[in-house]
Amino acid sequence: MGAQVSKQKQKRKLLTTEKKSLSQLQQNSGLVFPGSDYHPPDRKNWMSGLDPTKICIHNIVWPGSHDSATNKIGIRFVSRPFAQCQSLSIYNQLVLGTRVLDIRIQEGRRVCHGILLTYNIDVVIKDIKKFLSETQSEIIILEIRTEFGHEDPPEFENYLVEQLGEYLIHHDEHVFQKTVAEVLPKRIICIWKPRKSPAPKAGGPLWSAGYLKDNWIDTDLPSTKFESNLKHLGEHPPVSSRKYFYRVENTATPQADNPVLCVKPVTGRIHGYAKLFIVQCFARAIADRLQIYSTDFIDGDFVDACVGLTHSRIEEKA
């Protein structure tokens, strides 16, 4: 018991130090970067507003949501706070400007986060289709994976193709060099990551797991995660020469050995430093690597930061 109390005291001291470290870095660095003063007049149609003929797929800084379909996960006020990473529906996230969705499913085609379940994948598909029907030039990266500890839903690749076929941008590494206008009217890059089922075939309607990479660090320490994100991002080539998407997630994760187990207060330790991360990418000469940038509880400021940097790239100012 005494050892556990001592460990918790050390953890709290380390957390305090890491919070101060990020706060001091922000004070010293500021929040100004190329495009930081740009705000899209219509987040729902921000790709259209930037001119689809000028936006190259690889140059987009894609605002994404982590564990996207968890707005109604578990039981409200009981289990939900331990697994909820987003407060908005998929449709409302897309309207806000989110363009990368991270969907976890289990064998019964229900969305899940760990052992907790929520609505059927059909709800996600319906929201995506509604958004696409209301817009003309917005491209979505839809990542769907079988959650750890679960089995792949039967015939799921066929289901995705049946539901989204008319919108799917087929696997083709030349897509990275194309503009949004050149891939239209197709609208979705769908990356399917099964655990045991065969991976999607090259050239088919779905993309395999290797085309969306990340380096997930499971920690509730904000500066540790922040610096890890920068380190791993710097290990990848610039977006102009990559044939895959790379994601950075501005999140912190509750740990079993810490008394704070609810997602929102833990991820909140790093949430406000999203713009600082972009500033530090420029300071460390790796801003040309940033591509997919995701967060818990996505908001307008986060979207604007991504869109602003995209605008700056189009204007050749970044």
Automatic annotation (TrEMBL):
<dbReference type="InterPro" id="IPR017946">
    <property type="entry name" value="PLC-like_Pdiesterase_TIM-brl"/>
</dbReference>
<dbReference type="GO" id="GO:0006629">
    <property type="term" value="P:lipid metabolic process"/>
</dbReference>
<dbReference type="GO" id="GO:0008081">
    <property type="term" value="F:phosphoric diester hydrolase activity"/>
</dbReference>
<dbReference type="InterPro" id="IPR051057">
    <property type="entry name" value="PI-PLC_domain"/>
</dbReference>
<protein>
    <recommendedName>
        <fullName>Phosphatidylinositol-specific phospholipase C X domain-containing protein</fullName>
    </recommendedName>
</protein>
<dbReference type="Pfam" id="PF00388">
    <property type="entry name" value="PI-PLC-X"/>
</dbReference>
<dbReference type="InterPro" id="IPR000909">
    <property type="entry name" value="PLipase_C_PInositol-sp_X_dom"/>
</dbReference>
<feature type="domain" description="Phosphatidylinositol-specific phospholipase C X">
    <location>
        <begin position="51"/>
        <end position="193"/>
    </location>
</feature>
